[in-house]
Design brief:
Chain A: Keywords: Oxidoreductase. Chain A: One of its GO terms (molecular function) is sorbitol-6-phosphate 2-dehydrogenase activity. The complex is a heterodimer of chains A (about 240) and B (about 425). Chain A is α/β, with parallel strands linked by helices and about 240 residues long. Chain A is built from nine helices and nine strands. Chain A has a single domain, classed as Rossmann fold. Chain B is of the alpha+beta class. The longest helix of chain B has 18 residues. The chains are: A alpha/beta (about 240), B alpha+beta (about 425). The interface between A and B is small, with 7 and 10 residues.
């Protein structure tokens, strides 16, 4: 069974199709499972698999242990897709928004993945994939609250990978560049650099199959971010990125 | 945006509103605009075209399936193609399917489509248990068999509201193959005899060579599902016509040649073989955008049906008219039909129907008007899902239940809310 956290997002829905297509049963966790009911029936019928819907709020840390215990079948793979992004200027002036960003993207993921990791360690097989972002590779003035929350997540996943390696558990850090989703619908994204949620999902599936550690999607972001990371801070601070 | 119908004629610029959910649709309908639902754009003429279009194709969740009864509940944008891909491997097939699987369930209901098994199983509405319909005021009604809105909506060309979801019965099958028998006939009389002889087989259709001197010479194909437990179905790869053919490519000579070769292809007088469901039911789906072969001006498909008693006489007259006009028809499909149903605007009546394509060119509309007169004289009518040009007088004369249809449009305040170029042309 594959557990997808933050199942209402566009990337999560495509991941659900990707795994269902390959014969996996699913547990879809989301704050609003009523809205996912038709989606779940659809995926169940189309791919002839089982789908369970579970209410889950990634920012309600205290509920996470109970949530995981309530899963009748424990997941072989867990994919965390939950994410929150508001405008940088709003986050700067409104700490509540900063906190929401950090709690959704970082603290919440840490909370649930601590629990999942502990379980997988006893099983000695399985995987964890979490959607971080290229924005976490370097803080930029235009998006550093979101970026730093994702940087935290990337660092966490890197440590987790190091820890779980001994237990034969794969940890995949997914770093999408631009993606056409509800979250970015208002932005005017450059076509060549923008992936569809379907592409991100199929890249995730393939990267898990190939036992990869870090996935940039589209692949070109690996090189873009390499350049961005190589710029000396003394120059970088003057740039308008 | 330029949404097109399959015939690429007529052309209109339209605003496209995707159907996302019920709340959004009801809000959309509360504006003072008029709309027409549009599924997958496979109706040939102007029945799904207007300035404001409700695009339903992405409203396509499978909602439920009952393994015991074969009852499938889907949103209206699901295509028959999707249903087959999901269910044929599990031993189920669409009960009534037209010559393309690339249509939505909503579209299948609206045109009350029929297929090669009409003489036995009737129209698509026969397989529909119930559906939900959003009226112009946002009210959602569940429509069951025998409701007046069922009779009006099945075949009602989207003019009674937006179909949201439907429960349809699938049929149990045990193969992805059809046992097909192909019979070459000499003339129209012989073709009719072959249809009658094989009428106990569920599927039958004939390809007629309209330009031949032997009027009604045909290749009749009949068949049924095999029973070989081979359900390992995967879609065939498609060919593509990547650009518009210049309009001169299809002419009297190239079509004659095609028809000659096609007739020649069936080697013996009677031949049996095992064919895939895709090549039996959907030979043209293999070529994406085949409508481009007619060129940028587009084409119209002329499909009429005549009552059985006047079929022979009428078809003789019409086929000789077409042969003498020399207007090219790439496809001419003849078929025997069963009983008429109760729906107000469903096309089929017991008799024979012929469907032919005409490239839009000088003189075509005049020719078709002449053919209309012959069809009317023999008590027949034309299919709305194909039509882009018939006159309102022709329609009102040939569909006797048009009054009931118009009454429903009035009764539920649909006349100002749902309109297509076709409904305005035909005054319905």
């Amino acid at each position: 069974m594959i557990l997808i956290i933050g199942a209402k997002s566009d990337i999560a829905k495509k991941c659900a199709h990707e795994y269902a297509k390959n014969g996996y049963n699913l547990t879809l966790a989301s704050r609003d499972i009523l809205e996912l009911q038709d989606f779940a029936s659809d995926i169940k019928i189309r791919h002839n698999i089982n789908v369970i819907l579970k209410e889950f709020d990634i920012t309600k840390f205290e509920t996470h242990q109970e949530f995981f215990e309530s899963l009748e079948k424990k997941p072989f793979g867990t994919i965390v897709v939950s994410g929150y992004m508001n405008e940088q200027s709003i986050c700067e002036s409104n700490f509540k928004e900063s906190l929401k960003t950090i709690n959704t993207n970082f603290t919440g993921a840490v909370s649930i993945l601590n629990i999942v990791a502990k379980h997988l360690e006893t099983k000695k097989e399985g995987f964890i994939a979490a959607v971080s972002s290229v924005a976490g590779d370097r803080g930029r003035a235009s998006n550093y609250i979101y970026g730093s929350s994702k940087a935290g997540l990337s660092a966490y996943l890197s440590g987790l990978r190091n820890r779980l390696y001994k237990s034969n558990i794969q940890v995949l850090t997914v770093k999408p560049g631009f993606v056409n989703t509800k979250m970015t619908a208002h932005l005017d994204l450059p076509k060549k650099l923008t992936a569809s949620p379907k592409k991100v999902a199929s890249d995730i599936y393939k990267a898990v199959e190939k036992n990869k550690n870090i996935l940039y999607t589209k692949w070109i972001w690996k090189y873009i971010m390499f350049i961005i990371k190589s710029i000396p801070e003394s120059i970088f601070k003057r740039l308008n990125l | 945006m330029n949404l097109k119908s399959w015939g690429l004629y007529p052309k209109i610029k339209s605003k496209v509103f995707p159907l996302i959910n019920k709340t959004q649709l009801s809000k959309l309908l509360s504006s003072n605009k008029e709309f027409i639902p549009y599924g997958n754009g496979k109706s040939y003429g102007d029945s799904a075209l207007n300035e404001n279009i409700i695009h339903t194709k992405k409203y396509n969740f499978f909602l439920n399936f009952n393994e015991g009864t074969g009852l499938l509940h889907v949103q209206s944008g699901v295509t028959l193609d999707e249903v087959i891909e999901v269910f044929l491997p599990r031993g189920w097939f669409i009960k009534i399917t037209p010559g393309t699987k690339l249509i939505t369930v909503g579209g299948a209901i609206s045109a009350d489509i029929h297929g090669k098994n009409h003489h036995i199983d009737g129209c698509f509405s026969q397989s529909v248990e119930e559906f939900t319909l959003m009226l112009g005021n946002g009210e959602i009604k569940t429509i069951k068999k025998n409701d007046e809105l069922f009779y009006a909506t099945c075949g009602g060309m989207g003019l009674t509201g937006v179909i949201l979801d439907a429960k349809i019965y699938l049929k149990k099958v045990n193969s992805k193959y059809i046992n097909q028998t192909t019979i070459k006939t000499k003339n129209l009389k012989h073709t009719f005899e072959v249809f009658e002889k094989y009428q106990d087989l569920p599927y039958s259709v004939a390809w007629i060579d309209c330009l031949s001197r032997d009027i009604g010479k045909a290749i009749v194909m009949v068949g049924d599902f095999r029973d070989d437990n081979n359900l390992d179905y995967k879609k065939d790869k498609n060919l593509n016509i990547p650009f518009m053919f210049p309009t001169f490519v299809l002419n009297k000579f190239s079509v004659k040649l095609f028809n000659y070769l096609y007739y020649k292809k069936a080697p013996k007088r009677i031949e049996e073989k095992k064919v895939s469901i895709d090549s039996f039911f959907y030979p043209l789906d293999k070529i994406n955008n085949w409508n481009r072969i007619y060129g940028k001006n587009g084409f119209t498909q002329y499909q009429f049906i005549l009552p059985k008693e006047s079929s022979f006489q009428g078809l003789q007259e019409i086929l000789s008219k077409i042969a003498s006009s020399g207007k090219g028809s790439f496809l001419a499909v003849l078929k025997l039909y069963g009983k008429e149903n109760k729906n107000y605007l469903s096309f089929p009546i017991a008799g024979y129907s012929l469907a032919l394509d005409f490239k839009i060119e000088k003189g075509v509309f005049e020719l078709l008007d002449t053919l209309d007169e012959i069809v009317l004289k023999h008590g027949g009518r034309m299919y709305l899902a194909k039509d882009a040009r018939m006159s309102k007088e022709t329609l009102h004369k040939s569909y006797p239940k048009i009054k009931e249809f118009l009454n429903i449009r009035k009764k539920y305040n649909l006349t100002d809310k749902f309109n297509s170029l076709q409904s305005k042309r035909l005054d319905i």
